[in-house]
Amino acid sequence: MKKCCIAGSSVHPSSAADGVFTETQNPGKPGSELEWESRFMGSSHASRRRVIPRLRSVVSPIVTITFLAARLFAADLTADDILRMSMDSQTRQEELQHQYGWREHVELGPSNKDGTGWTKLNLQRDFEVTYESGTVYRKIVSENGVALDPKEAERKKVHIRRAALALSTITSQTTSKLLGEETIDGHKCWVIRSEPIPDRSPSRWTLWIDEQEKVLIRVQSELLREDVELKAGALRTILYTRNEQGVWLPSRSTNVFTGRQFLAAHSYQTIDFSGYRRFTSDTKIQYDDPN
Q: What is the pLDDT of residues 161-180, one digit of tens each?
């Protein structure tokens, strides 16, 4: 990514009100603040009136050209430019997301025809995700509104591998194009469509990237070919919300899918995330070897 910067002189407080810019350097040297002031600030009122328009005639075109260049640069941005700009910010967000535990409220039922809800709510479950001795656990705490016995909940606790959505993984497996812009909850976003590279990814992605903070605030994936658990066509959308510490955390996930073995009916699922708790900096996270 190309980075543009404009080098300029500082504005002297006493001369700014008069419209005269002074350059601050080491006093006593050619071009120093003392020399500039002796030339302009000590000059007659008439000569100052001649100098000020000249300075304005030089500064005004520079400002105009810079503004137009910035507009043209923004207009010429490609999806790859935006993804490169966003990589560092998003990677940092992914690191911060790993410092939190949370609660999940899951609702599941047969999907309606347009995939926007269920025809009947079959199941409600609440889960809690915690770190214990450096290990990530997920346990069910209630089902269909009935709290589980604490001992039973502890027995059903399972060790999970924490997987954050990695932008670097998506970009390495897809080719992308910029679809346009959209505003989500007051945040102006770039909308990017990422098509899978053959034999690298089974999914098509749509990414909403905040233009100010360069982070993902909505992600949608569509499974184009079936995998071990799901048939092709499964659609998942995740919405992120910024907390007071500036960390973007998942707030809701919606999933429309048809399972290959379990949940063979076309299903609609929502997962609401809440109760985020940040763990101490010395917490160590251990993961199972995926192999």
A: 766 578 888 999 999 999 99
Question: How far is the C-alpha of 106 from the C-alpha of 4, rounded, in Å?
Answer: 47
Per-residue confidence (pLDDT) for residue 92, from 0 to 100: 93
DSSP, collapsed to helix, strand or coil, labels residue 191 as strand
Is the confidence at residue 34, as pLDDT, over 80? no
Token pair 């707030």 in the structure block, residue: 251
E strand segments, 93-170: 100-110, 123-132, 135-143, 146-147, 158-159
Q: Which residue has the tokens 């137009």?
A: 68
List Cβ<8 Å contacts ≥24 apart for 187-195. Answer: 187/211, 187/212, 187/217, 188/212, 189/217, 189/218, 190/77, 190/79, 190/82, 192/79, 192/82, 192/83, 193/79, 194/79, 194/170
Q: What percent of the chain has pLDDT over 90?
A: 48
pLDDT at 213 exceeding the cut of 90: yes
Task: Report the CATH fold assignment for 79-278.
Answer: outer membrane lipoprotein receptor (LolB), chain A (2.50.20)
